[in-house]
## 1
Amino acid sequence: MKSTIDWKNMNILVTGGTGSFGKKLVEIMLRDFHPNKLIVFSRDELKQHEMRMNGFDLQCLRYFIGDVRDKERLHRAMQGVNIIIHAAALKQVPACEYNPFEAVKTNILGAQNIIDAAIDAGVEKVVALSTDKAVNPVNLYGATKLCAEKMFIQGNSYAGVGGTMFSCVRYGNVIGSRGSVIPLFMSQKKNGKMTITDKRMTRFWITLDQAVQLVIKGIEHMQGGEIFLPKIPSMKILDLTKAIAPECEIDIIGIRPGEKIHEVLITEEEGRYAIDYDGMFVVLPNYSWWNRQNYKTGKKLPEGFTYVSNTNDQWLSVKDLKEIIKNCENVFDNPEHSSSAAYKHHNALANQQLNTVINPTIS
């Protein structure tokens, strides 16, 4: 499908731009879309410096130090911006449980600041990243992201007709991100014992490349108010341990506070308003301000449809996981060499293998 956006004339701002997703987004934007201006907005000056030193120093790039908690800084940063991708968040479940006020300030009040500043600055489109943990949340992180989702969807009513459009992208665990379980298991492999919380556990898995492509696709299709979801496979945590180190002893340590056995991407209630469209699922808003124009070819989902990690029809086998791990080992074993040509080569191979094995449908 031909792009509906003239990316070369777009000024784009990504919050949390130095995180795993942000860096991959910048890489793909610079390689494939060549925006007029790409603003990396984040709190960490060291990570911004490292991005510059690792080759992210093109003329169209801007590095803004700032925090989504600071509305005045957001107002200044958004001047002249057409599109915002909001990826900044406190994401570690245990950290959010232990520091609940900080999680609320960043994930909820920060979301409100993004919405208010974007409307005031006349930004055209805003896409916020969400997570499967926002669905029927059992931890504070998920609860803050559920709240943020609701705020972004209803931000369309604040913007009014013809104003800023807000939508969300929701997906599962990201392979290769800083919070991925793979580096932990590979480290434990050396000690001969691997810890898992429950042997029944399943998770959705997505690559960084897929996540970025889904966001870009969402931006191109959005009218405001949708939640875009990928079609991605599930994996069993026990299969992952077999793929990494079948010889290791498995220690079952019990479910942690705020942890689920299975994750949900679409509830039965959301399924009533969701469609299968262009290789992805789209949850359409059910509000008076929604005026459906796109998605005419979207297929309504069957009655009672849910999208849950343990009832998924796509699965990664132990063999699939072994292929992924084989190509990830060089990446995870040498993260300090992230600027080297060898690291970039192995990282490219790993991503290629991940996308091949998972057989993405969001191209």
Note: The mean pLDDT is 89.
## 2
Amino acid sequence: MGLFFSVKYGNENSIFPGRAAGSQRRQGICGILMQEDMEMSDRLANIRQEILDGIKERANSRAEAFELRKQFLDSKTGKIGQLMKEMKSIAPEERAGFGKSVNELKEWAQQRFMELDEKMKERELQRRYESERIDVTMPARNVETGNLHPVTQIRNQLMDIFVGMGFEVAQTREIENDYYNFEALNIPKDHPARDMQDTFYLSPEFLLATQTSAAQIHTMEKKKPPIKIVAAPGKVFRSDDDATHSPMFHQMEGLVVDRKITLCDLKGMLELFVKKIFGEDTTTRLRPSYFPFTEPSVEVDVSCFSCGGKGCKLCKGTGWIELLGAGIVNKKVPENCGIDSEQYSGLAFGIGLDRTAMLKYGINNVKLLFESDLRVLRQIDDN
């Protein structure tokens, strides 16, 4: 019989000491591997649970779902992406199983987030449907259509009439100097219009324009005859305030300069104008008057379009209504601009837009045009 002996190495009863030591080493290694497998399984399970909890608690919109997906699936910073980077520290014989587990988790996560994105799309679409839903049984909203101010309506009508006659449009200014507003128009320094109580002076030289006539001078200085312009309707200012006058009002000026211009040309042109504004049955008459910049000067009356000339409250029983001032341009005015008054003559007229609007639409107080009272403005619409 051979000699047997035992060595106390892990198992004191073992009679094969070499086998006992190897067995214990293998058992230790297997234990370590099993423990690592369990730890990895726990990590994967925890990540799964984090994804499920995040979807349930934090993913309330597509933007939040995107941020949650990035937290786990981003190739650089995502938790699953970080697991793939640990591959190099895994024993070669364990890498296949490790990689398989991580890939399965990744595919599962991608599927969950794809389903979540579809769910978010449906939810956002439903919210949009709810916000944009229209109840076709409800009454329609009452949307009022506005209309242009009476003065603007008259302005547009005048521009259409005179541009249709071949007039060009010249620009006006609200601030003028004394020369263009008075002196060049043959208004001497002692004329009452220059008094402080009639004109708003900004300085000894500059003032608020009292008329659009200054546009005539600006035009004749730059252009030689033939000239046919209307000064674009603009604001003018005078120290005057009552039921039919306002410190600020709107005026349009007309000027024609050519050879052999007479009052007949003026009357014929104004006849056409009043017929288009007040009706085909309207006619005009010229009454002698005085303006420093015209000679002869006339007041232009129109036959009353309310009573047909028979006499009424509007025309004060006369059958006629005063409308505008006009005349043949005073020779001194074109001469101030370097135009030969022996060869050329001209006609000029000035129309108050506010007065024309009051007459046409039956407004008895000029202040109604500036109070923005919709009860008044809604009644006037020629468009």
Note: The chain has eleven helices and nine strands.
## 3
Amino acid sequence: MISTATTISGKTHRCRETTHISSKTQMIRNPKTIEFWMGRLPHWEVEDGRYFVTIHLSGAIPKRGRDQIHNIAAELSKFAKQQLDERLKIQRKIFAEMESWLDSCEYKPLLRNEKIAQILVDAIETRTHKEIWQMFQYVIMPNHIHMFFELIRGRLKFALEDFKTWTGRQSGSLVHLDGKRFWQREWFDHWSRSDDEDDRIIEYIRQNPVKAKLVRSYLEWQWGSW
């Protein structure tokens, strides 16, 4: 795959796919909400949303960690949908708790299997070619995956469920799960509010292998979109 440049807020990033986000004046996005729904985690879909999504393997976070995340998520019921600042604070707490468990890479590191990692890369790129999403950046970690993309067509929920179903079936057959779930039932999603936040998300994705102490430089990590 030929590496190409992606420009976001005047900065250059390297991506596998030919993607471009035009440089814009800095402004806060305020898109129309399509749907807000609550499972064990909150999910918020908006028009023309750019989404930071984290999907992790079933069992990658032990029960005590999942219980803590669900307790934090339950705090959302205290706030009305209009109280966006408070809801964002809770989303950040959910993500921080989730990442603290995942970055230890202690539980279910099945994505270290190169055949499985390649299945995920192929699935991401196939959906890019089909114009389901425009992928700006992604990284495949040992037990989870981060993606940052703009949905081109369809609904976020259906796109991610399709991605999980296909990759879970293909990957599960390699590790003989015997019908057990490959991915955790839900995922974490967050839509980016500004160009500055786009840049922060991309930098976070790039630095995740470094933060998890897997490599010294993100460029040394094979399974990313750089």
Note: The beta strands are 4-8, 11-15, 33-38, 42-46, 50-56, 133-140, 144-151, 188-191.
## 4
Amino acid sequence: MIGKTVLPIALVVAAMGITAMVVHATEVSDAMLEEFASEATTPFSAEAGAATWVAPEPNGRSCESCHGESLYVTGSHYKTGELIEPMAPSVNSERLTERRKINKWFLRNCKWTYGRVCTAQEKGDILLWLSQQ
């Protein structure tokens, strides 16, 4: 039997031409991936999301700067030292469950890390990759 969450994930994956199965996504992240896909230029790639996450910007920052090398453990903010709970939905059941929080943190973190708002392509790649963690 296909679970309530797995079926929408499979449909999104098939529609976007993604071959890897998304295991830990939520209904919220599924819906957001569909919305970002309407503005994206290519199908989302978990590999591109992972690469974006670790790529340092000229300011020396990357997503990894605060969230740490492992998404499965607590990170700490690069500047303030504030603790950041694990990003992996497989170990933190609150991740990727609230649209408002996902949008808030994409906006804030993209501006802080990249000095700009992230594109729908970047958000989709990162969200897809995070949903598989």
Note: Residues 1-22 have pLDDT under 50 and may be disordered.
